[in-house]
Amino acid sequence: MDIKKRIVVLTGAGVSAESGIRTFRDSGGLWEDHDVMDVATPEAWERNMELVLRFYNQRRKQLYEVSPNAAHYALVELEKKYDVRIITQNVDDLHERAGSTHVMHLHGELKKVRSSVDESLVYTLDGWELKVGDTCEKGYQLRPHIVWFGEPVDMIPAAAQLTETADILVVIGTSLNVYPAAGLINYVLPGTPIYLIDPGHFDMGHITTLRFIKAKATEGVGTLLKELLD
Ligand code: APR
């Protein structure tokens, strides 16, 4: 029997940058011109629900206008030879739209909304706009299904367990600044090859199994494919 090697891929905003979705830290600490604390925290929601809804409505609307890029598609290509498991920090659905079959979202999903009181009530929003007064079946206001700063990242234990099973770890387009997501790379077993694809600067010389492909995602994942599929 042919058992496929497992590749766990951790992606961040950079994998979607060439689709036209701006990364957070490449735009001067502002996220589409907003201080992240004004739009992506529970306090922001308490203070100004309308602003938070408007911000995520814009992000959601934009998502309908963009498409997966060559990097998303190349990761689908990898499934021919490998058991590919994607763990993404992104709230977009570009991995799914490209055709990746195993995608875990650490920080939530833009196209989903949930009850602001009963977390178990999660819905896929029809269209892009969520308004004040849109409620769950129990009558509570709906909020974006997003993990905001200061909120627990419930998927971390499952993501850590998955990372431990990696034969190869691939990290694409993340500044590795935001924890606990950034800590996932520490869960690989000793000796596991790690590929890092990013045009930015990283100080990770201490990881002896690291192969740093300093390139944008579309180009870098192309290089990865050549190395892993040949
Ligand atoms: N291809 C690959 N990487 C790129 C590209 C590109 N075309 N353009 C930029 N990058 C890299 C940057 O060099 C940087 O390392 O993408 C990374 C983006 O980093 P961040 O903006 O910090 O995004 P991310 O690491 O995903 O942020 C983590 O923080 O904003 C919150 O919750 C949000 O999930 C997000 C988390």
The CATH fourth-level homologous superfamily of the largest domain: TPP-binding domain
Low-confidence segments, ≥5 residues, pLDDT <50? none
- According to CATH, what is the class of the largest domain? Alpha Beta
Q: Strand percentage, roughly?
A: 15-25%
Major sheet details? 6 strands, parallel
User: What would you say the CATH architecture of the largest domain is?
Assistant: 3-Layer(aba) Sandwich
Mean pLDDT: 95
Question: Tally of extended strands?
Answer: 11
Separation of termini? 21 Å
What is the overall silhouette? globular
User: What small-molecule ligands were found?
Assistant: adenosine-5-diphosphoribose
Rg from alpha-carbon coordinates: 18 Å
Detailed description of the structure:
- By secondary structure, the protein is of the alpha/beta class.
- The protein folds into 2 domains: 1-21 and 67-107 and 153-230, Rossmann fold (3-Layer(aba) Sandwich), CATH 3.40.50; 24-65 and 110-146, SIR2/SIRT2 'Small Domain', CATH 3.30.1600.10.
- The chain has 8 helices and 11 strands.
- The mean pLDDT is 95.
- The chain binds adenosine-5-diphosphoribose.
- Adenosine-5-diphosphoribose (APR) binds at residues 12-14, 17-18, 23-26, 89, 107, 173-175, 177-178, 198-200, 216-217.
- Adenosine-5-diphosphoribose binds next to α1.
